[in-house]
From TrEMBL:
Gene3D superfamilies: von Willebrand factor, type A domain. SMART domains: VWA (SM00327). It comes from Lysobacter capsici AZ78. Residues 209-368 form the VWFA domain. PANTHER family: OUTER MEMBRANE LOLAB LIPOPROTEIN INSERTION APPARATUS (PTHR30634), OUTER-MEMBRANE LIPOPROTEIN LOLB (PTHR30634:SF16). This is Mg-chelatase subunit ChlD. InterPro entries: LolB, Uncharacterised_CoxE, VWF_A, vWFA_dom_sf.
Length: 373
């Protein structure tokens, strides 16, 4: 979500800068963040010194990646494009889009990954190759953590009726182990000595194939969701009995399933920004469902529909009535901080969808529960 349009006086304050504080007052909240981002860029203007204006502390308060992520979270697309163009062309802030040295020295992070995804269209081929290596390292770290969560969720239910010879932690039966070793309790030392730890077997969950369609809103505000959805799709790709399709959308729909096994390649093809036509994406998912009773559609979006709201609700309802399980995810980053159209979310719930905010690990657990049901 971008910053709500401020009233005329606040807009003048953002335009005039800190010098207007005595007359218009200092900005607060998101306006203060927007003002800091503008000051970070336009505070570099040498003509301000000639006019007797004093620069603020903006340039030292934000790193380049932080600034890029801030403007993408606060301003509409046309303003973002102008700010980025001014940063590169007017003020020469080209560390991200032209400097191999910065990309090779900077510590890979999710913050920097978001910045790369926002600016990759401005990079020359040599810098893009370096950026791809950075993306690969961040994705590797995310996948390493997420793959464990996915495997645990889909590893099968514990069957306490059958013991297992596989002595691994996730199969350890604590209660039965204590019960069967109580005769080895030492009251003087107040310790229980284990002679025979008990491990249980796991039942298989999948007898038929399940089809999972991930519909990912690729508007600028959904960058965290795009990143984690790409990695989640790759984790689900190799699970037995699972067929995963990943589709990105704005006002157009792009099927990225061919790149699901390579989340780096997938992310480098995503085009962030633009409008949103959720109904068109849901229609595409409908056209790819062959067995509704064994299908799950996960819609990752902020639910701000730029197309027909009526058509969106109608198609979600049709999916549910056909037997498809539909989940609407308002957030898909590790903090699960939701920012979404609650009215539309309520309408989708009334149509039979499940709507919530989940971390990637929680999504894996939800999918496993629905597959097991």
């Amino acid at each position: 979500m971008s910053l709500d349009l401020p009233d005329p006086l606040q807009r003048w304050r953002l335009l005039l800068g800190e010098a207007a504080d005595p007359s218009l007052g200092a900005p607060q909240g998101e306006l203060a963040a927007a003002d800091a981002a503008l000051e970070w860029l336009y505070g570099r203007d040498p003509e301000r010194g000639e006019r007797g204006e004093r620069g603020g502390l903006g340039p030292s308060a934000l790193s380049v990646p932080d600034w890029i992520n801030t403007v993408h979270s606060l301003f509409p697309q046309e303003v973002i494009e102008r700010l980025e163009r001014d940063a590169v062309e007017r003020y020469g802030i080209d560390e991200i889009v032209t400097s191999l040295d910065v990309l090779e020295r900077i510590e890979p992070s999710e913050s920097l990954l978001r910045a790369v995804l926002h600016t990759k269209h401005l990079m020359n081929p040599q810098v893009l190759a370096a950026a791809r290596k950075l993306v690969a390292e961040v994705v590797r770290r995310i996948m390493e953590k997420l793959q464990t969560q996915v495997r645990q969720s889909f590893s099968g239910t514990r069957d306490r009726r059958r013991r297992s010879s596989q002595r691994i932690a996730r199969n350890f039966d604590f209660r039965r182990t204590v019960r069967e070793n109580l005769h080895r309790w030492d009251p003087q030392r107040r310790r229980l000595f284990l002679d025979k730890p008990v491990f249980v077997s796991r039942s298989r969950r999948h007898s038929e194939r399940w089809d999972i369609v991930l519909l990912i809103d690729q508007s600028g505000s959904m960058v965290d969701s795009v990143i984690h959805s790409a990695v989640m799709a790759a984790c689900l790709w190799n699970l037995p009995g699972m067929s995963t399709r990943l589709v990105a959308f704005d006002t157009a729909v792009v099927d990225l399933t061919a790149d699901v096994a390579d989340p780096v390649e997938l992310l480098m093809k995503v085009q962030l920004g633009g409008g949103t036509d959720i109904a068109k994406a849901v229609a595409y998912a409908q056209s790819r469902i062959s067995n509704p009773a064994r299908s799950i559609v996960v819609l990752v979006s902020d639910f701000f529909e730029g197309g027909s709201e009526y058509e969106l609700v109608r198609r979600v309802k049709a999916l549910v009535e056909s037997g498809v399980k539909v989940l609407g995810l308002a957030a898909l980053d590790p903090q699960a901080r939701p920012a979404f159209d609650r009215d539309m979310a309520a309408r989708l719930v009334a149509a039979g969808a499940h709507v919530g905010a989940m971390t990637p690990g929680e999504l894996a657990a939800w999918l496993a529960e629905k597959v097991r049901a």
